[in-house]
Each structure stands twice: as C-alpha cells, then as structure tokens.
Amino acid sequence: MSDRLQKWDSRLLVTRALAVLGVLLLLVAPLYLEEFWLRLGFTACGAAIGALGLNILTGAAGQLSLAHAFFLAVGAVTYSWLAGDPDPAIGPTGLGWPPVVAMAMAIVVTAAVGLLVSPISSRLSGLYLGIASLALVFIGQHLLATLSGITGGFQGRSAPTFSVFGFEFSNQSELLVLGVPFGRYERLWYLGLLLLAVSAWAGRNLLKSRHGRAFRMIRDKELAAAVSGISVRRGKQNAFVVSSALAGLSGALFAIAIGSIAPVSFSLDVSIQYLVMIVIGGMGTVTGSILGAAVVTALPILTQRYGGVFPLVGDVVSPAAAARYLYGGALIAVLMLQPRGLAAVAGLVRRRAPSNSASEARPIAGGRAPVDPPTDTDALERKAPIT
Amino acid sequence: MSPQTAAPLDIEGVTVAFGAVKALDDVSFSVQSGHVHGVIGPNGAGKSSLFNVISGVYRPSAGEVRLDGMALTKLRPHEVAGLGIGRSFQNVDLAGEESVLESLLVGRHDLMRSGVTAVMLGLPRARREEREHKARVTEIADFFGLADHLDRPLHELPYGQQKLVDVARAVCMEPRLLMLDEPAAGLDEAETDTISEIILDLRSALDLTVLLIEHDMGMVMKICDHLTVLDFGRRISDGTPSAVQSDPAVASAYLGTGEAAEIETGTAP
Ligand SMILES: Nc1ncnc2c1ncn2[C@@H]1O[C@H](COP(=O)(O)OP(=O)(O)OP(=O)(O)O)[C@@H](O)[C@H]1O
Ligand SMILES: [Mg+2]
C-alpha cells in the first residue's frame, strides 16, 4: 500500500513540476516567440474566458445557450464605446473613459444584460432555451447594424487600445526587456494570461462551491435538486449571469485583439464555435474550456498558415476549407474516442489518487454487498445547523 | 433559523388527478411529531404521489398539507425543503461522476449562505463555511457507515450504499420531517435490518418525524408507530400497526397481490 501511495505521490510531483515548467515557459515566451504566436495566444486566452463562461452555463448547469455571441458582442461594444475616442472626426464617437474602467464596465453591463433576460431563460430548458437564445443573436445582429452611433453599424468601429494607468498595450512607447522590444503583442500576451488565470481560478472556485454543486444537480436531476432545497430558477439565473459576465470580458478582449469590431464577428457561427470549444474541451470543467478554446482558436489560423505543407491544400481545397474539415474531423474524433473531451484525456495523466478502499474491493454495480453497519450510533447528536 | 424540532404534519382532503387517473382521492391523515409513520399500499396506490404533494412537486387539485400548522400546498419544492422537510427517492439514479461527499453536500445547499461572488473570490468566510459543512457532513456520513467512501464516485458504490447515500443526503438537510420512499427496496435482509436501525436511531438522535413508504412488511411492522394504508388513491385504513393488520379492508386490498400473507403475518417474504 505504501509504495503505491509513493507512486501516486511521485506522479503528483511530476505533474506539479510539469505545471511549473509550463507556467515558466508561458512567462518567458514573449522573449522568443514572434508576433504571430503572441497574437494567437492572446486571442486564445480571450476565447478561453468566453468558453469558460459558456461551460459554466451549458456544461455545468446544463442550459443550452446559442446566445453566447450576443453576450460577447455586448462586452465588445461596451468596451469600444466607453473607451472610444470622443472625437467625432474619426468615426463613431466614444465616451473616452479609461480602458480599464471600460473593461470592468463591459463585464458589469454584460452581466446585467444576462440578469435582464434570465427571468425568461431560467423558465426554459433544453431545446426550448436553445431556440429562445437563438433569438438573442438575431436581436444582437439587428442592434449592431442599427445603433450605428455606438456600434459603427455594418462597417463596425475601431476598438481603442488597452491601457492601465498610462501604460499602453501598444507599440507607442519604447520598451526593451532583455534586449527584446516589448510591443503591443508582447504586452497583451501577459494581459491575456493574467486575466485567464484569474478567471480560471474564480471559475474553479465556483464549480467547487455550493453553487457549482447546485448547477450540476440542476443539470442531472432537476427534481431532486429542488427537493434538496435548491431553487432551480435561482441556480439557472446564477449560471446565466456568471456566464454573461465572462462573455463580457471575453468580448472586450476580442475587441482589443482585433482592434475593431463588426457585426460579422458576433454571428450565430460564433455561438456554435463556442459550443464546439466546450464539447471537445470537456463539459463543465475549467481545463476543458481552456483546451477547447485553444484548439478551436488555433486550428483555422494554423491551417491557414501551415496548410501548404499538406498535399492538396492550396490546390484542391483552400486552406480555409481544410481548416473546416480538420475542425469537423477533430470534433467527431473527440466525441467518439473520448466523449468527455480533451480535459478527460489530460485527466488520464493527472488523476486523483484513489482511496484505499476503492482499490481493494471494487463492488459490482447493482450488487448486494452488505451495508456497513453504523459504527458508532451515538456519534450523531442533534446539532443546531451551523450558521 | 428557528429551533428545529419534530413537527406534526396534517394531510387534509388531498386530491391529485392525472387525466382520468386519480392518484390521490380525498386523502386525509395526521402524522404525530416524533413518530415513524408508515404509508403502505399496493403498487400504484398513490404513495409516491403523496410525497410529491407534500414536497411541492405536485399541486393538488383539492386539499391542503400543513406542517406545524403552516400550509405547504402553495410553496415551491425548494421552499418546502427550506421548512425542514428532507426526502429520499424511490429510484436512486446516480449515474453522475459526483463523489459521495459532493452528493451529501448538496443537502446542505440551503443551510449555506455564501453568494456567487464570495465563492468565486474565495473569500475566507466562504471557505470557512464550506469547511464547517464538510465536517458536519462527514459526521453524518460516519453515522451511515459511509465515511470511508466520501471521495468515491457515487456510481461505484453497491446499490445498497447508493440508497444509503440518498437517505443520508436528506438527513444532511437537518430536516424536522424525513420522508423516505422505499428505502429498503432492492436491499437484502441484513441491509434492511441496518436501514431499520438507522431510521430508529436517527429519529431518537435527531428528534425527527419520519414518514416512510415501504413494501417490506416485516420492516414496516417492526419500526412504525402508526400506519396509513392507501389503495387506488384512497385512504382505506389508518391506525396502529396491529389495528391495520387486522383491518379486513387492508387484507382485501392486498388480496391477490402476493403481499396478503405478509400483511397478516407481519413478516418479510
Ligand atoms: N406524473 C404522473 N403522470 C401521470 N400519472 C402519474 C404520475 N405520477 C403518478 N401517476 C399515476 O398515479 C398513480 C399512483 O402512482 P404512485 O407512483 O403515486 O404510486 P405508488 O403508490 O408510489 O406505487 P409504487 O408502490 O409502485 O411506487 C399511478 O396510477 C401512476 O401511474
Ligand atoms: Mg412509489
């Protein structure tokens, strides 16, 4: 038994070491990587935050939403408008707020919009919710096109550069780190990592908490959840608002990454892309959200760039089409080989040590192994509920 | 939170209909506080429907349910639960990956207070609350003999223990009224004895009222203080186990169901 424990311990050690190494690599990456990769990394971080939001709602709480693109749009527009330049000479005006404040407001406003629609969404479920949420995407498209003073209409509008206390995430001011010029994408790389780390930490806290348990219970056994004292509507509402808040942040980061926003960036395709992320990444998990977002973000960009090395790509199929085939193929492969997603594949390496009893007597499901008699019946005394 | 003591339950003229089927037809009876009160009857008699009415899942077309004088019939299920009614289910359906500990903690949801923001930010008070409730849940799990299995996924446990987890989850709600829907179904004799003991110990240790649906007549006769018998949605008998046992209406309801002999002898098959 003890050497088995040791084996698990050493495995844990290896995982820890790998994690530390991974973090270090990510931290020094801007010293070595070219702009293409840094930009991809930032985009993926932003997408991962959005995917985490959808995963809390759809993966953990089981509420199918096709409205994610709408909430991304709310975040992106809020950021771009609030931080935008007030000078009307350069397109649609903004309020000229500090970008940090605008980003925080993107989260708050999007969460508020989520709260606003939650009385409807929390009364629906399954396909009905899916269809109803679809309507939001269309409303969003309409608003993006018509509120041109804020959104820039069909052409869209520019999204202001991010800055914190005068430190600009742009190429404006010269900054050298170890002889490497730190421009826009070097700086954004760290911003993306930091925001993703904080979101992932908060997301994990949430999923491990009473609220996370309530989400999963509502998803798996709604009736049993209610009878156990969980307000199903309240739970769905919580999931919806948190999901919207994260979508708001993700939308703002998207605007920052691209430097502009337009209605096409928030179409139904985008909602579906996010669903794909959480499905291939792993439903209801933080790791799954990140892995799924990384794959779905990187795949088309990488095939676009490196597709030429494969035969046929470029001649018979366009790189964009090749990306789509690959994407579809990957989706089907994951669903067939590991329906619980990439996170579960990663979990094969990184798994909790089993409890002793689990390894000794593995019972046959549905069998009639005797129930252990209570060992100490006096141990359970009447206690006031803990306050 | 009010001091939770055993509470009397009144069922008054409850009627529930599904189309032409009257699952419950003008059913009335009272449950004394501190009793283990059995609800028995042949399959389809309306026992589970009665539980669903009490816990707010079904809305009766007529009648009322009162806990400690307070009407429950207008409340939603989680509000009924919040008043101190814990319930286990006839069919345990535990396919999920959830561990035993997590399943039990679900029962604490309403006793915990931390909001979404507090848990996301990992605030100390949210962590402390989680710790305290885990400690209490571990205590309850220990009582059920489940303490060694807290980290195991529920679906790995043998059926008997899965049923125990479901009962334990209801106990984790710190209920005043504990409703158990066939807790011994599918269990063997030894397991049935264990669950009987657990129910009696819980009643005395936690000062509970227990409402018990059960087909195992041996168990029912042994642990119930009072019985209500339903048949085709109607209350056909109500009284002490021995009075019900000798009620001819009960015998004829069970006639031909194979359980008639059990009723008369009060033994398990
Ligand atoms: N949700 C429902 N929809 C339609 N009919 C229902 C519903 N719930 C119960 N019934 C019907 O009501 C009647 C009573 O069912 P109920 O489940 O309450 O019986 P029971 O006494 O618990 O039976 P068992 O001992 O088999 O569990 C049955 O005829 C059943 O088919
Ligand atoms: Mg039943």
Topology overview:
The complex is a heterodimer of chains A (387) and B (269).
Chain A: H1 2-32, H2 35-60, H3 68-83, H4 99-121, H5 126-146, H6 148-151, E1 157-158, E2 163-164, E3 167-168, E4 176-177, E5 180-181, H7 184-208, H8 210-220, H9 222-227, H10 232-258, E6 260-261, H11 268-281, H12 286-306, H13 319-337, H14 342-349, H15 356-360
Antiparallel strand pairs in A: 1-6, 2-3, 4-5
Chain B: E1 9-18, E2 21-31, E3 36-40, H1 47-54, E4 62-67, E5 70-71, H2 77-82, E6 85-88, H3 100-106, H4 116-120, H5 124-143, H6 159-172, E7 177-181, H7 189-206, E8 209-213, H8 217-223, E9 226-231, E10 234-239, H9 241-245, H10 248-254, H11 260-265
Parallel strand pairs in B: 3-8, 3-9, 6-7, 7-8
Antiparallel strand pairs in B: 1-2, 1-4, 4-5, 9-10
Adenosine-5'-triphosphate binds at residues 18, 21, 23, 41, 43-49, 90 of chain B.
Structure description:
Chain A: Keywords: Cell membrane, Membrane, Transmembrane, Transmembrane helix. Chain A: Pfam families: BPD_transp_2. Chain A: GO terms for molecular function: branched-chain amino acid transmembrane transporter activity. Chain A: This is Amino acid/amide ABC transporter membrane protein 2, HAAT family. The complex is a heterodimer of chains A (about 375) and B (about 270). With about 375 residues, chain A is mostly helical. Chain A contains 15 helices and six strands. In chain A, the strands form three sheets. A two-stranded antiparallel ribbon of chain A has the order 1-6. In chain A, strands 2-3 form a two-stranded antiparallel ribbon. Chain A has a two-stranded antiparallel sheet with strand order 4-5. In chain A, helix 2 (about 35-60) packs antiparallel against helix 12, helix 3 (about 70-85) packs parallel to helix 5 (about 125-145) and helix 3 (about 70-85) packs across helix 10 (about 230-260). Chain A is globular and about 60 Å long. By secondary structure, chain B is α/β, with parallel strands linked by helices. Chain B is about 40% helix and about 20% strand. Chain B has helices at about 45-55, 75-80, 100-105, 115-120, 125-145, 160-170, 190-205, 215-225, 240-245, 250-255, 260-265, and strands at about 10-20, 20-30, 35-40, 60-65, 70, 85-90, 175-180, 210-215, 225-230, 235-240. Chain B has a six-stranded mixed beta sheet with strand order 6-7-8-3-9-10, sandwiched between helices. Chain B has a four-stranded antiparallel beta sheet with strand order 2-1-4-5, covered by helices on one side. In chain B, helix 3 packs parallel to helix 6 (about 160-170) and helix 5 crosses helix 6. The relative contact order of chain B is 0.18. Adenosine-5'-triphosphate binds near residues 43, 44, 46 and 48 of chain B. Adenosine-5'-triphosphate binds near residues 23, 41, 46 and 49 of chain B.
